[in-house]
Specification:
By secondary structure, the protein is of the alpha/beta class. It has a single domain, classed as Rossmann fold (3-Layer(aba) Sandwich), CATH 3.40.50.300. The protein contains nine helices and ten strands. The strands form two sheets. A six-stranded mixed sheet has the order 6-7-8-3-9-10, sandwiched between helices. Strands 2-1-4-5 form a four-stranded antiparallel sheet, with helices on one face. Helix 5 runs parallel beside helix 6. The two termini are 26 Å apart.
Length: 254
Amino acid sequence: MTSALSITDMVVSFDGYRALDTVSLDVATGESFGIVGESGSGKSTLLRAVAGLNGFDSGTLTVDGRRFSGRRRDTAFYRTVQMVFQDPYGSLHPRQTVDRLLLEPLAIHGFADADIRIARALDEVGLGSGFRFRFSHQLSGGQRQRIAIARALIVEPKILLLDEPTSALDASIQAEILNLLEQARKDRGLTFVMVSHDLAVISHMCDRLAVMRYGKMVEKMSVAELRGRDFSTDYTRELLVASEGFVRPADRSG
């Protein structure tokens, strides 16, 4: 199977501190890959480096068969790779309507038929046309995250980077958003890279996962191996104990 995303020996430093230390990763096309670890382990830094929100000092990044440097100015890259952030309150401009929030990426990437695409995007995330001219402050947290997902999907990316996309939401809303994302992956053939501190979310959404600590990947495994407690490091075992009870039946029907 071909790789949608390949990272080799990536290093990211901030003021001499190595936030990512020679990280390597391959994610297959259409796969959902999870990254877990404690706060400060480098999970979000890795996603931001892949997304081009911060550069990387050394190593290689290959996306959809193309190699990219630490700093990217290629518009096509940002159509291929989109990111959904943790905070649905901070990721949407409070003075823009939903219509404007969805129109902007279409204009940047030169899409026509904006009205049709916006209506379709709102339907895909379970919001009707009545939400189109609302402001983000008029929306609940779950509705805002649906808009953030619609904004990412509207440019038809191949890879979606998900940085704790449900951790700021109520538990009942979390399941709805996860099922929405999983349905979008199936319908569009998307590749997911999902960061979470919640092993329940990773076991529900992902095929494989990596465990990060102090900017390094300490272990990679399948979700089946995680459920079977077939891991090799004490740190992974400690994470599992800290999240005891995380294993629940995966409902991928939604």
